[in-house]
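Example record for the data management plan.
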Amino acid sequence: MTPAEVKLWQYLRNKKMGVKFRRQHIIEFYIPDFVALSIKLIIEIDGKIHLKQKKEDAERTRRLELIGYRVLRFTNEEVEKNINGVLGVIKKNIEDLKDN
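Corresponding structural encoding:
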């Protein structure tokens, strides 16, 4: 895991956000960074390499959404410099998905 993934994992693990997250869980052809299967929420942490593969990432997101997942993407920098903002977005999405 990257340092940003390690940092975020400390907040996601052991149901700290109210749902169980898994790391690197296979979904079809993809291995997302984090997934909460019970509410179909995927969290991806993107490094600089993703700047060069935006088309591939968009296709991946589209395919995952077609099978019912919500995909949240954050950059390494967002996680490292604004963890509270990232956690706020994740928490809001968790609440939205639990309500549905």
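Summary line stored alongside the record: The chain has one domain: 3-81.
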